[in-house]
Design goal:
Elements lengths: L11 E5 L3 H12 L6 E5 L2 H9 L10 E4 L8 H10 L8 E5 L4 H9 L4 E4 L4 H18 L11
Parallel strand pairs: 1-2, 1-3, 3-4, 4-5
Helix pairs in contact: 1-5, 2-3
Length: 152
Amino acid sequence: MQSNAVTNENPDILLIEDNPGDVCLIRIALSECDITCTLHTATDGDQAIRFLYDKSRRVPRPALVLLDLNLPFLTGHEVLECIRSRSETRTLPVIVMSSSRDPVDVRRAYRSGANCYLHKPTEFDELIRIMRGLTQFWFNIVRLPGYPSQVV
């Protein structure tokens, strides 16, 4: 059985984002954090689902998911609903990062099980601040399912 243990040393993060510019900025912002992580990317909802549930993949289940809502094929809302509907990912922390300020999107994300909803900042310094806060909180403060040696 593959271990899905989460450690705060080089945790895996899945970024589900279709905008290559945002992927690049988030990658750079994460490199500015006090933690080294492995960033995996999926550029649409279908690709994200394949990444999460492909039994043949050779990478650990991510410790954290950063999810955009406006995705091709399956929307971010649909991806989140799928993650929460399956036992192997039900407890996976999912952070929605969207440009949408629509209260309907916010409510739906939380009803579907998002751990938090963040509006994508327009300033790079703010993105760095957010990524530092996220990585500090999720990898140094809270205890994640599977950490340090339990299987998710």
